[in-house]
Amino acid sequence: VNVEVIPETGSTSADLLARASSLSAPLLLIAEHQTAGRGRAGRSWLSSAGNSLTFSLAWKFEAGPQALSGLPLALGVAVAETLGRLGQQVRLKWPNDVLKDRDKLAGILVETTAAERGIWAVIGIGLNLVMPDEMERDIGRSVAAVPWLARMDRDALMAALLDGLAGVLREFEHTGFAAFAARWNLLHAYQGEVVRILDNGAVLHEGVAAGVDDAGRLLLDGAEGRIAIAAGDVSLRVK
Ligand code: ATP
């Protein structure tokens, strides 16, 4: 994996998507400061210089896009297990968030672009190290940070994350999400709790969260019995 560190950019994922056709190997792009970070469905990811890790990793898959549907969840397992190894216990919120004490600590966004043979996945990750009050106000909800990890050598932290991500990516290439479902469920933040699935603010489903299936769909036990929900653009809230 090649690594580039740049002082500032709008979005490391936008940069890698624009460069994907000219890449010949996986590339990790780290920005000291990201000014236009993005989340799902046009939402934004905020960060401030020196207080966050913001990076994207371009990784090529030979498979078609449908094979990548569980990838954001498998990458959540990678981030959570890596932080766990470093001593910070975190949990996963379906489909793509890493939580500490129920607040969002990191976001993972997977975007894809066609490659000559196969597909480039651009994996964007934002991780809060320190969360200044004014940033939390801008985000408009309480969020988590790991100030003790901010004191760790930044290169060592990035190296641990890259190691965890690359290991999961290689495994995912062979097994798809099926091999990660049990690991994801062990880290599930809301297992057995009543949650709501929202689409643009409207409640689509309500039920008891029962983890994910082999395709990364959320299993929900509700009035209609058990249903499986694909990620799409829906959001999850605890009731
Ligand atoms: P939700 O978290 O609302 O269910 P989501 O999981 O789809 O939605 P993402 O698209 O992954 O959210 O991330 C974007 C959202 O994350 C923003 O709308 C904002 O609420 C929140 N956010 C933005 N920056 C940060 C940050 N630095 N730390 C924690 N949360 C943030």
Brief description of this entry?
The protein contains 6 helices and 14 strands.
Keywords summarizing the entry:
BirA Bifunctional Protein, domain 2, alpha+beta, 2 domains, seven-stranded mixed beta sheet, SH3 type barrels, about 240 residues, globular, binds adenosine-5'-triphosphate, about 25% helix
General description of the model:
With 239 residues, this protein is of the alpha+beta class. The chain has two domains: 2-186, Bira Bifunctional Protein, Domain 2 (BirA Bifunctional Protein, domain 2, 2-Layer Sandwich); 194-238, Roll (SH3 type barrels). Helix content is 26%, strand content 38%. It has six helices and 14 strands. Strand 10 and strand 11 (202-212) form a beta hairpin. It is globular and about 50 Å long. Adenosine-5'-triphosphate binds at residues 39-40, 43, 45-47, 96-97, 104, 107, 126, 128, 139, 141, 143, 235-236.
Task: Summarize the SSE layout with pairings.
Elements lengths: L1 E8 L2 H8 L7 E8 L2 E2 L5 E2 L6 E10 L9 H16 L4 E3 L3 E4 L2 E12 L4 E10 L4 H7 L7 H4 L3 H22 L5 H6 L7 E6 L2 E11 L5 E5 L2 E5 L5 E4 L1
Parallel strand pairs: 1-2
Antiparallel strand pairs: 2-5, 3-4, 5-9, 6-7, 7-8, 8-9, 10-11, 10-14, 11-12, 12-13
Bound molecules: adenosine-5'-triphosphate (ATP).
